[in-house]
Amino acid sequence: MDETKDKLICITHYTDDVSLEKLKEDLLGEKEIDILSNTFKALSDPTRLKIIYILSKSSLCVCDIANILDMTQSAISHQLRILRDMKLVKFKKEGKLVIYSLDDDHVLGLFKQGLDHVKHK
Fold first, then answer.
1. Does the residue 56 lie in any domain?
2. How far apart are CA 56 and CA 14, in angstroms?
3. Which Gene3D superfamilies match (predicted)?
4. For 71-83, how does the pLDDT look when each residue is reduced to its tens digit (9 = 90+)?
5. Domain that residue 62 falls in
6. First-to-last CA distance in the chain?
7. Pairing of strands 89-94, 60-61
8. In a domain, 4, yes or no
9. Over the stretch 54-67, which tens digit does the pLDDT of each residue have?
């Protein structure tokens, strides 16, 4: 590869060196980036997004979610485990029943912002 050719592509910088160095120093750490990336990966699955949407309306058990989505309880449990591991949903036990809900308002905010972005395109 011709290095001279690559250098000619960017002859001047839009931003000064001090600002570029500050941006470089402010980069997120690898751990934060990995967690954020995995969060977006978890939200990239259509079934998991449907579950997030349903749980944004009401806390439900696996049976109810499976019924709404016309899927097996096993398939829903698998998706809920992924969402739980990413701290996007939480559960509480009521006797033998396990009730799922969104982990916090940040999850709802992520979902709503993504939906707003899609609707306003």
1. yes
2. 43
3. Winged helix-like DNA-binding domain superfamily/Winged helix DNA-binding domain
4. 999 999 999 999 9
5. 13-119
6. 39
7. unpaired
8. no
9. 999 999 999 999 99
Q: What is the CA radius of gyration of the chain?
A: 21
| Signed CA dihedral, 37, 76, 63, 99: sign only | negative
Looking at the domain assignment, is residue 109 inside a domain?
Answer: yes
Cα separation, 65 vs 91, whole angstroms:
13
Q: How confident is the model at residue 17 (pLDDT cuts 50, 70, 90)?
A: confident
Q: Which residues contact 73 (CB under 8 A, 6 or more apart)?
A: 62, 63, 66
Environment class of 100 (CB within 10 Å of its CB; exposed 0-12, middle 13-18, buried 19+) = buried
- Reading the block at residue 19, the tokens are 């600002």
pTM above 0.70, yes or no: yes
Longest dimension (CA), the chain: 70
CATH code (residue 37): 1.10.10.10
65 located within any domain? yes
Give the chain's domain count: 1
